[in-house]
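Note to self: the last two entries modelled the partners one at a time, which told us nothing about the interface. This time every component goes in together.
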Amino acid sequence: MTGNPALAPAPVVEIAHLNKSYRRGSQVLPVLQDINLTIQAGEFLALMGPSGSGKTTLLNLIAGLDRPDSGHLTVHGINLPALTESQLADWRAANVGFIFQFYQLIPVLTAYENVELPLLLTRLSRRERQEHVDLVLELVSLSDRQHHYPGQLSGGQQQRVAIARALVTDPTLIAADEPTGDLDKKSAGEIMDLLTQLNREFQKTIIIVTHDPEAAAHAGRIRRLIKGQLLNESEPQED
Amino acid sequence: MLKLTWRNITRHPLRAALTILGMAVAVLAFTLLRTVVAAWYAGVNAASPARLVCRNAISLVFPLPIAYLPKVQAIPGIEAVAYGRWFGGNYIDERHFFPKFAVDVRRYFAIYPEYVMPEDQKLAFMKDRRGAAVGRTLATRYGWKLGDSVVIKGNIYPGEWPFIIRAIYTGAEPTTDESRFFFHWDYLNESLKKSATSRADNVGWFLIKVARPELAPLVAAQVDALFKNSLAETLTETEQAFALGFVSMTEAILLAIQVVSWVVIGVILIVLANTMAMNARERRGEYAVLKTMGFKGRHLAGLIFGESLILALAGGLVGEVLTFPAVHFFKVSMGQYFRVFPLTRATLILGLAVALAVGLLAALLPAWRASRVSIAEALRKVG
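The predicted structure of the combined assembly is written out below.
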């Protein structure tokens, strides 16, 4: 990120002095404190940290799934906390693909139908939707399993369906929460290779939350959270 | 989304089938009970606003003298007057009940055009003093044909009363009672003159046809004024009010039936609401995932309302289909107690509307909760 500033990629995510806490009865539990973070377009960032450090909460805030208590949070220049619930839903549909640890596919829909779901919110025709779904299923090498239900697929295959679902609307930002957390080593490697490919070939901005150093090694940058605070990149990075 | 709604329904086939069955039984019970109530009111609905019934003011049990007839006929605004008397009596035994009336045949059937009989049969009936006219339902029940001899054992008027079936009438309206037994008042009266003179020359009621329905209150008042302070004062009211008087005797039962019909619906509403709440609770995580993709509260509410409405509609339709054989069974086994057993289009529409309303109400709370589901909380993970 040095050299001519005019050639530097534009920041996609800009976070400054962000705070978030949760209420448990009368208790207020601070989860994120004074977070400052910038993520550039096309960057592959891994958020690491022990359980309860606030990394999923930070990811949820960036993906527009939750709201901060205070601080500045813009994604693609949009001030997310200022959006209404409805505007936020529209924004998520157009800009974010989310990948979960436990795949979160709808069990009564086939792989094809699961991938097609986000497109039902668009104005695409049935034929156009089919083209999009075929394309992403091809990309994740699951064209031959499109009529299978999640229960008929392995964990790795289900996660690839989930990635196809996250990709199908062609979002610029992909948020993945422990995408390899439920997978064996081989499948985890395949999933991370796929995310790396999406980042390199399609310039997707990818943010993953992970415990796994091997998964994090695929990212271009790693940031660590400890007790709700983001460590400086220069600080020693220990879990 | 329709596909997802349908797949959600078939996710637990046994649960869906039992819910539909429960709804079907509830709608069946509801429509059947409404039909019973309608059957009770059939006499009221069949009443004409241009007909008045004039009876003894003390009670229907007490008669009026036939001598009143010319005085009543003389009142302006009256088009025709007929008279009749409740006969009682049993055919075979007490279990074979049907209403039997001794009537002024010629004028009675002129005032009641809804009793339709072939002209030749009508003539034969009028000519034969021991002749009887019976409704089609009654004739079918006992296999009576024209010319058959029927003996009624009298209880109010003791003795054995032989009749010959001379006419079989049909109802002009679906609500017309086709289970009545009519014979000549003259036949009864002549017998009474021989055996019980004091009971002769009396009628149970006069049936008055007014020229126009709007004259009915005035004519009724004039009739009653005419016999005020006489030995047998009269009470004249519209045929509808007269029929309502009978219904009001059993008003508590009717009210209970109506309450039960709505209680049944209330129970199925709770059952369906519980099913929908259970379904929605199980899918909380899926709703959160859908919201992550950009689906909004109204989409999730649509899924839940759709599922609830399809379950309710399916149950409602099955219930309505089952209503037809159930009503037929009721008609066959209870027909002697009801003039008609009318399963009307209005009852069927009400049954279906109630099913849909139950579907809507049952989905209300789960849909509201699903639409407000917090993604972060539903995914239950704070990393």
